[in-house]
Amino acid sequence: MRKDQFFIATFLSFPAKLLVLAGAGLALSGCISMAPEPRVPSLVADMPDSFAASQSAGDYQPQNWWTAFEDPVLDKAVEQALASNLDIAEAVARLEQVKAQARLSRSALFPSVNAAATASESSTPLTGSAFSGFGGGALTRIENETYAPSLEAAYELDLFGVNRNDAAAARRDAIASEYDLQSMRLAVAAQTISTYFEIVNARHQIALNQQIADVLSDRAVRTEEEFQRGIADSFELYQIRQQLRATQAALPQLESAAADAENRLAVLLGSFPGDQDTWLDQPLTPRLVFEPVPSGLPAALLDQRPDVAANWARLEAARLRIGARRAERFPQINLSAAVGGQGDSISAGFDFAENWTRSLAASIVAPIFDAGRITANIKAARAQYDQAAASYAATVLQSFQEAESAFVDYEKQRERYSLISSQLEEAELSLDLQSRRYAAGIGGYTTYLDALTTVYQVRSDLASAALSTAMARLTVHRALGGDWDTQIAAQKLEMQNTDSLNDSLNAESGDTE
Q1: Domain span holding position 66
Q2: Domains in the chain: how many in total?
Q3: pLDDT confidence of 440, banded at 50, 70, 90?
């Protein structure tokens, strides 16, 4: 066999040995896990089978629910907020950071391969060395040059799952951050919708108060005339004037509230106040929706609400870190290898056929005494797991409470709206009667004005009830954890398109438990 053929055969057989060892390590590492079995907190396991206050059965349909208001301006506002809000942008960047950290943790599961090259030159005197008696006096120094290019590989056999569990835990952290992003999108969309409703209500209240002020102004003029003629007393005149001043005083406050809501909406949309005027300067006409919201089952909150899902992912991360810390009690096995060349010149160093080199090393390190470091880390990991379990159970309990309260509030707000609607019908009937009596000459104009003022005031109350009803419906959807755009729904479906969330995460992390 020629020397170059021998070198090639040796070069190929050397990594093969390393691959055999690494493959054996991977096979063994997949069979051992120190992490405890997943378990659901008992409080979550005992969740009720149904919502006591729900008014409608059936599966919850969350996608783009706000389109039921049939308001294109609202649809545009939500779309722009989800695309341009800066809090969402910050959450996206935070998610990318956590994903990168997860990839960093996962890199410990694979061998590292590096190319290296060293060059050295030395010149030492012959006098005083072991070779001082040689050379016949002609050679006074020893010159040496060495060039050594190499390919180096290192791998840790993760037999007991230190790196594997840490990498899987980091992946759970990334999943939790993804759900945090969904929670942020949910919050921004909810704030956009509620702020939009505030603008609609404020504008309506301003218009109604102006109408009431106009009627009271006319009423005050006529009462003053009657007072001058001795028909009305001073108390009635002062009372009408006080009502007028109170109504006029409310207008600046309403206008300030409207401006504040518009400015807050601009910030939610990721723009400076005033930029939204181009499309807010048009009729804002959301349809009031009274249909009950199908609630689904309480257990669905575990999948529907991103904050619950995020806490579950963090609970799983804490569980896996217990396994990683337990595995640190056991030996750590490392493999390293290098293949390359060595010569007294650059060309000789790269002459692998003649000057090839190789090395293979293995080491095993087992802890004997660490002053309790490993035990303390295990206890800390268990305490973190207990914290995560309590946080997860508390989030589930809070989500159930929010849903129950939201159902009750939505029902009561619809009931209140219905009662005020009946009150408005009575006020409008009274106004119609006073209008006909005045037209027939048997009723006074001031009585008609009083009836008209009452109608406007009841309409103002009804507008406030409409706002409360819309806000209550918003709260129901938010409590149920509704998706706020089709992109989030697609992401969640992709994550859940396996036998279980754990299986999906294990597959993505490359770990087996």
Answers
A1: 35-111+160-330+373-509
A2: 1
A3: confident
